Amino acid sequence: MKNEQILGTESIGKLLLKYSVPAIIGMMVNALYNVVDRIFIGNIPGVGPLAITGVGVCLPIMTIMLAFAMLVGIGATTNISIKLGQGKKEDAEKIIGNSITLSIIIGLLISVFGIVFGDQILRIFGASSSTIGYAKSYIYIILGGTIFNVLAYTLNNTIRGDGNPKLAALIMIVGCMTNIVLDAVLIFGFKLGIQGAAIATVTSQIVTALWGLMYYARGKSNLKFHKSSLKLDKHLVEIIFAIGSAPFAMQLATSLVQVISNNALKIYGGDLAIGAMATISSISMIFLMPIFGLNQGAQPIIGFNFGARKYKRANKAFKISALISIVILTAGWILIQTIPDVIVGMFNKDPKLMEVSINGAKIYLLMIPIIGISITGSNYIQSIGKAKIAMFLSLLRQFILLMPMIMILPKFFGLDGVWYAQPVADFLATAITAFVLYRELKAEKEDEKVHKQEAVI
């Protein structure tokens, strides 16, 4: 297949441009799903601060939904790249059908469980009597569309792994534009408020999921979809889950941290602090999504070349990705430190909420220039199929280091302690990831030398 040959021969720089730029656009568009919702919700006349706090309470639930989408989507796409690198096209095609079935089953289970136990979950996740009404109005509609959420994410990933990153980005852009237009129409035109935002989000996810399904159903894809591949294969499910478990665990850990964070914010800063975190996480998302897009573009390049024992090419893809991420995140840091009022002001103009949000953003995002190393580094380990190490590195920044910080620092620094927890965890995680990467790249060099000697013999 032409795309397979290109992954192993074309210059890494050109490949990253081809695969990452559309993926970055796609991820930025994906970020806009949530960011635009929060901008519109935060500006609902009279209830903006409480409404955006209601969305903040829902963040852990939405993170859990993303975790399951990543379990299937990233697990399937990484395995497709590795299988293609090994020349096993038939297995790669079977993975597509299995990932569709898994998305539907998992999406349905989340919907049922979330709706049945929603009230109790929201209380545990930090909802107060003032905000639970807004949270319920939003999340129950989102939960009703979980199948489309998971399916849209999975198919968008596999389409990119299929060698069609431009289409994957286009689908995301159309979905986001649908969301933005419907947000404006439903929230302000039809006066549906926070429910309008949720309906807009679910509708846009239905559009992207159906488009992804049509791509394979029409038979124009490089990897062909066969109805028989919808039947779950135990081995394929296991390898999808094995690779997808790293980002899945990271997102689950993130959700748990968000729950602990929400409760700490509620204790030390009240409902407004939870609303501020919803704003800060949106700002963080704007700057981090290009890095996740870069990772997605690099993934098939790293996976294929590692599978084909072309270690230098795989390493180069990582190094360029890390450098670009540092540049992007440093630019983001400068904006946050110099004009935080402009950025925060997009989400809400309430003076008290703005004050809390600006202070929190400047502290919380203090270390973002260096975390690109941590994020691209764990992506490299994941892309070469080392799931356990990748899981450990992924959990470091968002759980292993962060959770103790959230529990300890507020006791000494109050609300500021909740904000400081993230940069402290970021610094330590980056240092540890850099050490693990150094050892991994060194081991690959030794393996390459041995392989060359064996080839000569």
TrEMBL record:
GO BP term, pick one: response to antibiotic
Membrane spanning stretches: 16-36, 48-74, 95-117, 137-155, 167-190, 196-216, 236-260, 272-295, 316-336, 356-377, 389-413, 419-438
Compartments where found: Cell membrane
First and last residue of the signal peptide: none
Chief location of this protein within or outside the cell: membrane
Membrane topology: Multi-pass membrane protein
Gene Ontology CC annotations of this record: plasma membrane
An annotated Gene Ontology molecular function: xenobiotic transmembrane transporter activity
Alphabetically ordered keywords of this record: Antibiotic resistance, Cell membrane, Membrane, Transmembrane, Transmembrane helix, Transport
Highest taxon of the lineage: Bacteria
Family matches, as InterPro entries: MATE_fam, MATE_MepA-like, MATE_MepA_subfamily, MdtK-like
PANTHER family linked: MULTIDRUG EXPORT PROTEIN MEPA (PTHR43823:SF3), SPORULATION PROTEIN YKVU (PTHR43823)
NCBIfam families with a match to the protein in the record: matE
Similarity comment: Belongs to the multi antimicrobial extrusion (MATE) (TC 2.A.66.1) family. MepA subfamily.
Name under which the protein is recorded: Multidrug export protein MepA
Originating organism: Romboutsia hominis
